[in-house]
Design brief:
Length: 369
């Protein structure tokens, strides 16, 4: 028997969440963001559930090739663009669209020696200050790409820094939108602005051609804790499950785990779970981080170690060796532990947990339920 830890990918949930993106941004083409190996899920595991998307967006040409190998013939967008002039040959061969965000990338495109039909997303830095051309240089860059024979189409692109928050005014999404609109004004071409938070919160007001849906597809709320996945009607697409492998009955003053950081106050029963930080569970998680045992919500106890963690099962009936433990996601018994609740107790976000499941954890696909 293998160690009982496993990650389960729920394909129905992915398909459901994609429909939520469609409903929230009607009249938009929805690109499914599958960077970081589909947010840790595995591109091959999510593909059939997401292939009704209008396009895919990711970072690595190697990941783009995997999508082509799966049979995807539609648009693929490289979100950070190309990393060398050489990459343009792959863009031609595999028909990849890409962002242009820097003067270097612009140079590479202008110097491309062969005839090509590049679909380019020209990125404006509207206030995030990571990638993109400053608004005052944007039109000039647009013009030079517009005149470049290798270019087939130009989409105006921006990325909000605060779509999940309350910063609407001066530096928030209104200001960034205004900068974007004012700069592109009368220039022809489609637009692409929204990530998950902008789709869910502002999707019906913001008009553009393509939206880029990432985290919402995977059943994590982009603006948690203000809204939970239940509020947005999203379903978890990944469950990290394991089992109880030992049970300890403890008396007051006894302690649990390395460093004896947890001391028992009243007699309690704990279950030892085959899951630790070497599986991708955050070591920093505080005592009380939520977990489901037999589908019932309880909390962790003491420090997370490399291969194990402890949970309080005092109040849970019928706990035995082999009882199901859900670290995040869905229980076989139907209950749900949103990844956002676990992330909050570990001082992080759902994104990081789902990307962080380690190579020793086997993955399984569930097509129903
Ligand atoms: C990652 C990414 C997205 C998706 O963001 P989510 O918050 O996961 O929806 C959209 N656009 C760009 C440019 C990105 O890098």
């Amino acid at each position: 028997m293998p160690r009982p830890i496993r990650a389960i990918i729920h394909q129905n949930a992915l398909a459901h969440n994609l429909q939520i993106a469609r409903k929230s941004a009607p009249q938009h083409a929805v690109f499914a963001v599958v960077k970081a190996n589909a947010y840790g899920h595995g591109i091959e595991r999510v593909y059939s559930a997401l292939k009704s998307a209008d396009g895919f967006a990711l970072l690595d040409i190697e990941e783009a090739k995997r999508l082509r190998a799966l049979g995807w013939t539609g648009p693929i967008l490289l979100l950070e663009g190309i990393f060398s002039a050489q990459d343009l040959f792959d863009c031609t061969q595999y028909q990849l669209s890409f962002t242009v965000h820097s003067a270097r990338q612009l140079q590479w495109v202008r110097q491309y020696p062969e005839s090509a039909q590049f679909d380019i997303f020209l990125k404006m830095n509207s206030g995030m200050n990571r990638l993109g051309f400053q608004p005052q240089h944007y039109r000039e860059v647009w013009q030079s790409l517009h005149e470049c024979s290798a270019v087939n189409s130009l989409t105006h692109m921006m990325h909000f820094s605060d779509a999940d928050g309350e910063r609407l005014g001066q530096s928030g999404i209104e200001a960034q939108l205004k900068t974007f609109e004012n700069t592109i004004q009368d220039l022809p071409g489609e637009r692409s602005m929204c990530n998950s938070a902008a789709i869910l919160r502002h999707g019906s007001q913001l008009s553009s051609k393509t939206v880029r849906a990432g985290i919402l597809l995977y059943g994590s709320s982009p603006d948690f804790p203000q809204h939970s996945i239940q509020d947005w009607n999203l379903q978890p697409s990944m469950s990290l499950r394991s089992e109880i492998i030992a049970i300890q009955d403890l008396q007051p003053k006894q302690t649990v785990g390395y460093g004896s950081t947890f001391q028992v106050e009243q007699a309690m029963k704990i279950g030892i779970v085959a899951c630790g930080y070497a599986d991708g569970y955050q070591r920093i998680s505080a005592t009380g981080t939520p977990v489901l045992v037999n589908g019932i919500r309880t909390g962790t106890v003491g420090r997370v170690s490399m291969d194990m963690l402890a949970v309080d099962v005092t109040e849970i009936e019928n706990v035995e060796i082999g009882s199901e433990v859900v670290l995040w996601g869905k229980s076989r018994f139907g209950s749900i532990l949103p990844i956002d609740d676990v992330a909050q107790a570990s001082g992080t976000v759902g994104y990081e947990l789902m990307c962080g499941v380690t190579a020793r954890v086997p993955f399984f696909i569930e097509t129903q339920g």
